[in-house]
Amino acid sequence: MTTQLTKLLETEVAKRRTFAIISHPDAGKTTLTEKLLLFGGAIRLAGTVKGRKASKHATSDWMEIEKQRGISVTSSVMQFDYEGHRVNILDTPGHQDFSEDTYRTLTAADSAVMLIDVAKGVETQTKKLFQVCRLRGIPIFTFINKLDREGRDPFELLEELEEVLGIRSYPMNWPIGSGKQFCGVYDRGKSQLELYQGDDHKDIQVRKVDGVDDPLVKQIAGEFLHKQLSQDIELLDVAGDPFDMEKVLKGELTPVFFGSAVNNFGVQTFLENFLQLAPKPEPRNSTAGVIEPTKEKFSGYVFKIQANMNPAHRDRVAFLRIVSGKFERGMSVKHVRIGKDIKLAQPQQFLAQDRDIVETAFPGDIIGLFDPGIFRIGDSLSEGEEIVFDELPTFSPELFSKVSIKNALKQKQFLKGIDQLTEEGMIQVFTTFGFEDMILGVVGQLQFEVLEHRMRSEYGVDILLQRQNYQFARWIVDEKIDPGKFRINSQLVKDKKGNYVGLFESEYALRSSIEKNPTAKFLTSAP
Ligand code: G4P
Fold first, then answer.
1. Tell me, what's the ipTM?
2. pTM
C-alpha cells in the first residue's frame, strides 16, 4: 500500500536536482551560478555571489582566514526553485582554495555541470574534478562559455573532450559565428534560432525555423555564417554521436550547450534542458543494501565539515546529504557510528550567503547541522536503523609537508589538533618508518595555511611545516613489500590505518617503482 508519506516523497524527490559545477578558475563559474540563481529568484541583484569573491565581508561571519584572503574557503550550497523544480547547487571552490572538500562535495551531487572557456578548452582543474565524477559514473552536462569572445573551433573542443577526458559528446545547440560575429545558437532538437543580443537580456529572442536551410537562417546569419552552420550541422548529423539518454545517465555521453554566461545568453535554455535531462536524487549504497530516496525512514551522510562559521562560538557545521525519508526539525536520529540518538535541533539550509533554519527537507537536499564535535566525514545518520553508507573515498594528495611543533611542551594539544583535523578530513597524515616523522598530505596549498591558522587559534599550537618534494602518493598493496628495499627518489610511509603509501617525487620515480614491483598494486585512493 502506498502511504501518504511515500506519495509525498515521490513528489518531492521527482522535483529535485542536486548538482555541482566543475571548472577551472576563471571559466565563469561564479557568473553562471549567479545567473542561475537569478532565474530562480533566489537573489535579486547580480553581484551577490560575486561579492563573496571580493573582500567585502560586512555580513559574513566566516572564518578569519577567509576574510583575510577574500575568498570562500569551503564549498557552500545554494538552493532555488525554478518551474516546479527545486535545485541544489553545490559550489566547488577553485584556485588556491582547492581542497579535498572540493572532491568530497562531488560525492553529494547526482550530476555535474562542466563549464569550459571556449578559448581555453579543458584545463587542469576541470580534468581533476572530471575524474572524480567519472569514478562515480554521474551524468555530466557541458556548458561552453564566453562565445562572445574569439575562441577555439567547436569541433576541436569536442575532440578535446574525447581525447583528454574520454567522454563523447552531443551538442544540443551549435554556435553561429563567434566573438564579434557571434549571432546566436541553432537549437538542434527544437530547430530554432536563439539570437544573441549582446547584453544581459533575460528574455531570449527565438525564431522557429524549418531546419538550418530555412531562408530565415540565411537572412539572419548572412551568407558566410549560414554556409558554415549548414556544413557543421550536416557533419554532426552524419558523423556525430546520436543522442542516447542511457549513455548520458551513465556519464558516457555529455550533452553540450554553447553560451555566454556574463551576457545571460544560453543560460536559460541550458537550465531548462538540464532540469529535464538530469537525474533526480539517486539511491546510495550502504551496509543495509541500496537505500532508495523514497524509503520512508530518514537517512543521510556527512560529506563535509566546516569549522568556525561563526568564530564567536567554536562551532562547526556538518553538511549532511539527505538520502531517504523526510527530515523534520527537531527530529531524533541515530548517529550510527557512536550508537546514540541525537536531536537535530538547529538545522540550516543555504541560500546564497544567508543561512536559514530549515523546517523540513527531502532527499537530495543538503542541510547544515550544528556540530559540537561529534561528527566525522562519512558519518551516517538514520531514523533508528543500522545503516552505514559507503565510505567516502580518500583522494590522493599532491602537496606534502613534514610537520613539527615549535614548543615541545605542547605535544598533547598538537596531537589532539592533528587528530581532529584529520578526522574532519582537512589533511591526511602519514608516518615515516624509523623516525616516525609525520608527513601531511593535501590537494591544495590553502589547506596548509588553514591548518597553521587553526592549530594556532583553536589548539594554541604553533607548527612548523617543511615542504617536501613529493608530487604523488599511491597506496601500495603487496603481500611481500619490504620497506627497506623501496626505490630511491621515493619514500614509503604508513597512513593512519597502517596501509603502505609510496610518496614519489616525479612521474618517473612513480613509473619506475611500478615497473620494479610487478606484483604490487599502486592505488590512487586508500584500499
Ligand atoms: P570563476 O568563478 O570560474 O573563477 O569565474 P568568474 O565567474 O569570476 O568569471 C571570470 C571572468 O570571466 C570574469 O571577468 C567574468 O566577468 C568573465 N566572464 C564570465 N562569463 C563570461 C562570458 O560569457 N563572456 C565573457 N567575455 N566573459 C565572461 P573578470 O574581468 O575577471 O571579472 P569582472 O571584472 O567581470 O568582475
1. 0.98
2. 0.87
